[in-house]
Amino acid sequence: MNPSSPRGRLRDALLRVGERGDATEADLRAAVTTALRELAVEALGKRSRVELVTLGAEERPCGRSFGLRLADYDVELPDVLLYADQSDLPRQVQENCPTLGQEEWEAVLLVSKLIFMGLQSEPEPVHDDAGQQSQVTPRPPRSVARERFCQALAAISERPDLHQDELTAQLRTALLNFASETPDNMEAAQRIAVLHTGEPQQGPRLCLSRSGLAFVNVVMSAGGCPVPSCVLEEFPDLTQDEWNAVIHVTGLTLMAFEAEPTREVG
To answer: How would DSSP label each residue in 148-169?
Structure first.
């Protein structure tokens, strides 16, 4: 892994979140938020709203997990995208990506949600010892399915020896093993591919198999779009800036798992 660039540092920081290790949650939070800001400066400039996103814990019936969430609204990014993938293709995105279809738009949001879920830590019980302050045990190792999904994502940027068809097959298989073979997930898996998009100096990217559009380009073109009504129905107090933050962090996370662009010499 080469964390020498902003993309590499963000990829490294995100992959560490779900690893078993001694790094404290505060250290992981600092690493992820710093890397997000660095890449945002490079990719988004003053438009960035990534400062509204942090790394935090969510208490669920199955245990406590650690992942990306909105800092003030206190909701995980996958939960926002869970409702967003029911949204209509925004006109702004259609204008920027004229070959994109509604089903592909939904697939981009669904797969992005699953990527955020894959990068979270495994749920871990919180133990309360006889009324004393609850103790959080060290993060458990990733499950086999989650680990293979993370490895398949990382391989896009880190395995130049693999052909794009092999990278695609690995990613589709790992996604379904991690996320389960529901009809929606199976359809979305068939819509993804790892491709060279033909852009100068650009290596393999996560793309849509039909249109060939890169996920990053689709997501980033949605910056500034109004909050979808289906998202507001579930999160009525979500602000436009927070929605922009979700879009920006989704795009930057996808960018972190693309191959580094090559630099021209001379």
So the answer is: HHHHHHHHHHH-TTS-HHHHHH
Q: Which residues of 22-53 are buried (b: 16+ CB within 10 A; e: fewer)?
A: ebeeeebbebbbebbbbbbeebbeeebbbebb
**Three-state helix/strand/coil letters over 201-250:** CCCCEEEECCCCCEHHHHHHCCCCCCCCHHHHHHCCCCCHHHHHHHHHHH
Global confidence as pTM: 0.91
Lookup: tokens for 207:
């793309």
Number of domains into which the chain is organized:
1
Whole-number Å distance between alpha carbons of 259 and 85: 26
Q: Is 58 helix (H, G, I), strand (E, B) or coil?
A: strand
CA distance 216 to 251: 5
- Does residue 156 lie in a domain region? yes
> What range does the domain containing 240 cover?
6-123+141-257
Beta bridge mates, 110: none
87 lies in some domain: yes
Does 133 reside within a domain?
Answer: no
The reply to whether 98 falls in a domain is: yes
User: Each residue's pLDDT tens digit in the chain (266 positions)?
Assistant: 455 799 999 999 999 999 887 788 899 999 999 999 999 999 999 999 999 999 998 887 777 889 999 999 989 999 999 999 889 999 999 999 999 999 999 999 999 999 999 999 998 776 555 444 445 556 788 999 999 999 999 999 999 899 999 999 999 999 999 998 999 999 999 999 999 876 656 688 999 999 999 999 999 999 999 999 999 999 999 999 999 999 999 999 999 999 887 665 44
